[in-house]
Every structure is written in structure tokens, then in C-alpha cells.
Write a structure and sequence with these properties.
three-stranded parallel beta sheet, alpha/beta
């Protein structure tokens, strides 16, 4: 399985920030029975605007944040009946990536999670604006 996480909304570099309130999921390691395991099934997602530019509030990280998805001005449900609100945040970017990964699993049911992640990496638009802020 793959865990998709929002990069965070503090405008910080997740590669260098040490913050007790924010856990960086990418490349987590744990030791069990004297063996070290690396969790390479985690996809951390930043937020971009409609022009493909990283938005100011979005966390980023050239070694931790894999990619970005729309996260500014996303239509979302409202507490009012039959209405939508425009919202922003990496929490709106991550579900778009999770849905994409789910569709990839449907189309490639015999692929491993690492093959699916590779397919995702190969399918994204490489934006010059994100070269120094994502993997």
C-alpha cells in the first residue's frame, strides 16, 4: 500500500525543518529484530496554484516532497446545502494524488507499490517552477 500525505501549510522546507508538531513521513526507518526497514511507500504532496507555481503557504522539500498538485482555490463541500466553497491547503492537494494512485492500481493491478509510484513520477508534468522544491 501507499501512504499519501500533505506536505504542510507553513511555507517551510521539510528537508531542513525540525518541528515537534510536524512529522516528516518520507523515508522513515524503523528497526525490528536488529534489521532496519525503510518505508519507501510514502508520497508527500505540496500545493500549487492554477499556474503551476508553488503557493506561499505550501511546505516543500527537494528530498522529501515528491510532487505537487492543485491546492489553491479548490472547490470543496460546504456545510450549507447544495453549496461549495473555495478552499486552499496541501490537504486539498494530497487527495488528488491519492485518487490518481488508486486509478493506477486499478489499471495495473499486478504492479507493486513501488512500480505504481514510479508510474506516477513518470506521468507528472515536470515544471521548472518546482525543480528546487520537490524530488
Amino acid at each position: 500500500s501507499i501512504l499519501v500525505v500533505a506536505a504542510g501549510n507553513n511555507g517551510l522546507d521539510n528537508d531542513s525543518v525540525v518541528n515537534d508538531l510536524f512529522v516528516h513521513f518520507t523515508n522513515l526507518q524503523f528497526v525490528e529484530n536488529n534489521r532496519t526497514y525503510v518505508m519507501d511507500n510514502i508520497v508527500e504532496v505540496a500545493a500549487v496554484n492554477q499556474a503551476g507555481q508553488l503557493v506561499g503557504f505550501s511546505n516543500f522539500g527537494q528530498t522529501k516532497v515528491m510532487l505537487a498538485a492543485p491546492g489553491r482555490g479548490v472547490n470543496s463541500c460546504s456545510s450549507l446545502p447544495n453549496q461549495f466553497k473555495t478552499k486552499s491547503g496541501t490537504s486539498f492537494s494530497a487527495p488528488q494524488v491519492a485518487a490518481t494512485l488508486a486509478m493506477m492500481f486499478v489499471h495495473f493491478p499486478f504492479d507493486s507499490y513501488s512500480q505504481i509510484i514510479d508510474r506516477l513520477r513518470l506521468s507528472v508534468d515536470l515544471l521548472a517552477s518546482l525543480e528546487s522544491t520537490t524530488i
